[in-house]
Amino acid sequence: MGLVEGKVALITGAGGVIGADTARLLAEEGARLVLTDLPTSRVAEIAAELTGQGHEAIALAGDITDEQTAITLVAGAVEAFGRLDVLDNNAGATYLSGSDGDLLGTTRELWDTSTSINVTAPMMLAKHAVPAMIASGGGSIVNISSAQSLRGDVRNTAYAAGKGALNALTRHIAVQYGPDGIRCNAIAPGLIVGEERLPSFPAPVREMFESNCSVQRLGRPRDISHAVLYLASDLSSYVTGQVLTVDGGITDQLATVGPTRAMALTAISTKG
Fold first, then answer.
1. How far is 242 from 240, CA to CA, in rounded Å?
2. pLDDT level of residue 207 (50, 70, 90 thresholds)
3. Where are the annotated coiled coils located (predicted)?
4. Spatial CB neighbours of 254, under 8 Å, sequence gap ≥ 6
5. CATH of domain 8-270
6. Which of 33, 62, 29 has its CA nearest to residue 47?
7. Known catalytic residue: 238?
8. What is the rounded CA–CA span in Å between residue 127 and residue 132?
9. Cα R_g (the chain), whole angstroms
10. In the chain, where the domains are located
């Protein structure tokens, strides 16, 4: 028996490195999956891969910033599998290219776009998932936040603010629907790097993170997938309303990170 054997899980952002890895791990542990992302072709490939391995998975299309999509996704899960047990609000948007900078450089358009994906979409999905979970006898909502929501920074203002709001939403859902058998937790990842990014990942950034990280390595998608599995499973039945930081301990060493990070960013900009 897998840790989530027979549970039905809806995963947003399932085409990304973390979402896809989470889908594979939950499938291995017995979950039946509803996957969504844009473009839909990517999650269709992942669903086909999993079904080819004997797992149960379907891909559904939709823009999660549209409330009708939330309604359709939840209804699709119930129609396909008869219930909904887990919602993994994995989809998110950050602007590491520099467009999400400091406060004075934050435009209303950027703020609204970031907030709609990072806060409003998870809220709407949870809103429509809760009744389905209650009908199924309870469930677990896992919101993917960010370690940036736990501290200040010189950029990513809109992103970090949105993830901070997601943390607050997590606690409110946990309090409001705990009596109905629903748990809600968030995961705050640090820097996570997929296998395909490693060869081109900037050396100064890698060195900065590894030297300031307690475990002396970059985070990998499976680090987050394991945390999602824990919170989705009955192993965490007494855990709710929490923000679980999965960052290798770098947040605990912020006093040394600032100057090193500045040097790393300077090195990147110098290299072009």
1. 5
2. confident
3. none
4. 151
5. 3.40.50.720
6. 33
7. no
8. 10
9. 18
10. 8-270
